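Morning!

This is the sequence you dropped in the shared folder:
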Amino acid sequence: MADEKVKSDPSAPSAEYSVGDFNSTTKLADAPAMIDDAEYNPFEHRQIEKPNSTAGSLIHLLKSSLGTGILAMPVAFKNAGLLFGAIGTVVIGLICTHCVHILVKTSHQICQRTRIPVLGFAETAERVFEYGPPKLRRLAGFSKAFVDYALMATYYSAGCVYIVFIATSFHDVINYTTDNDWNVRIYILLTMIPILVIGQIRELKYLVPFSALANLFIVVTFGITLYYIFKDPLEFDDKPMFNSFGTLPLFFSTVIFAMEGIGVVMPVENTMAKPQHFLGCPGVLNTAMGTVIVLYAVIGFFGYVRFGDLAKGSVTLNLPLKDDLAVAAQILIALAILFTFGLQFYVPMDILWRKIQHKIPKNKHMISQIALRSGIMIIMGGVGLAVPELEPFIGLVGAVFFSSLGLFVPCVVETVFYWPNELGKFRWVLIKNIIFGAFSIFALVAGAYVSIRDIIALYTDDDHDE
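The structure's back. Tokens below.
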């Protein structure tokens, strides 16, 4: 993404944002208490040096959602069955879309109330509590910190999945073609060498070539994968319509991991030339998420039909390694994820560095950045070494981080903003958010339990072959 800057209106509190920023970069000035000025339009007070077009914003949102998660959809369907998987994918996609919608809408409304042209995810949560019910206002600082730290945890944990994914792909290809018998942990250690280099890149503009190559590799890999899925007749009769209740939590957490891109939504919307086109019908959000839901359902459905119970954490790992085309696909997707790691790692490091840089002397910023980044990446690699199994790892990350940040937080933010007199007839907004919040908690608890249980089973089963 380009590093477009958003400047606030001169008459409003100063703030500055970028597409690369997943939180605001400045402290927002205090606004007059409880301003309710229906005539204030925050869109008219945004000053953007290089605004994104509506089409460009759609591409950004699609790029953030169409990543490695789509490759895990066949294994999600394996845990759900054909019919339940198809219906469940659409339902979860609609819930994720709705949660993004209410977050952006609430952000617009709190911007109007406080006369601040633009707010990030964490700042939206902070301002909603700050201007919310009196008993909750003391939680404003906590809500901002919670979102910031949740974003960091989400993207650091997703980075761990990236490391395992890259290592697993090279493990399968190299061991097959060379008759080696190296453990996947050796490949994780080897993967850490380029990871430690790419993770030191601190400017978005230097990550652009890597992102461009990654996008190209992903498109080619998708094409090859679809070729193998559809090249032979598909057998539907031996695939269950519903699998079992015991595996449903893994289905929910995997789909949430695959679809949820909550961290990039506010930066994309904040840098649009016409932000009013983000919501609405068709709108950027509905168009992007509609496309995502269809593609994820198609890949998951037909990928499971093709590979059945043999479906792995990434469908590329199911491709026949005896074919050069399949080998090329595995290598390309591994390189694509490797090249994407820099952008994935940039996000949490940007948040963390803004929180601690004032505590470090300026003449030690360079060495501190190198040491901090290296230390965190080594820890991420250590997590990958501890849990080198891709399938339950994806489920765990989706359950714990993406369900809480992408589903639970938007519901809480909307409820607090409308409390107590604007919750609609029969308080339907409250009832709806309680239902969605309960679903997110179920996905978190049940998904984490099943994932951790499966991880433990992998290392207590004497017959397990690492």
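Headline: The two ends are 38 Å apart (CA to CA).

More detail when I'm at my desk.
O.
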